[in-house]
Hints:
The chain has seven helices and two strands. The C terminus is likely disordered. By secondary structure, the chain is mainly alpha-helical. Strand 1 and strand 2 form a beta hairpin. It is 58% helix and 10% strand. It starts with a helix and ends with a helix.
Amino acid sequence: xxxxxxxxxxxxxxxxxxxxxxxxxxxxxxxxxxxxxxxxxxxxxxxxxxxxxxxxxxxxxxxxxxxxxxxxxxxxxxxxxxxxxxxxxxxxxxxxxxxxxxxxxxxxxxxxxxxxxxxxxxxxxx
Length: 126
């Protein structure tokens, strides 16, 4: 599906496209891992490379995306840049998501469309 098709689908469903863009940005595992790490406090790219386990160029690309979305910002200190959450509301959103996941138990993870454990469930004898 192209970006235009996705936008058209969202428009047909009356989903506000900024909300779709926000949740799409949070739906990418590496970006979510970066944000979860930044909840604990600011970090340099090298800190995020160690924490997330991806290449520096990949982390930088994700930080650029998150910065363009207004979710993270940075401050320079000497030659280093320290990244941090730009909006404190993001911490509330991530905490609410954790609460929702705790309340639904395994239901979201077993979702046939988006769950990560669907294949395991299908291969499990009943």
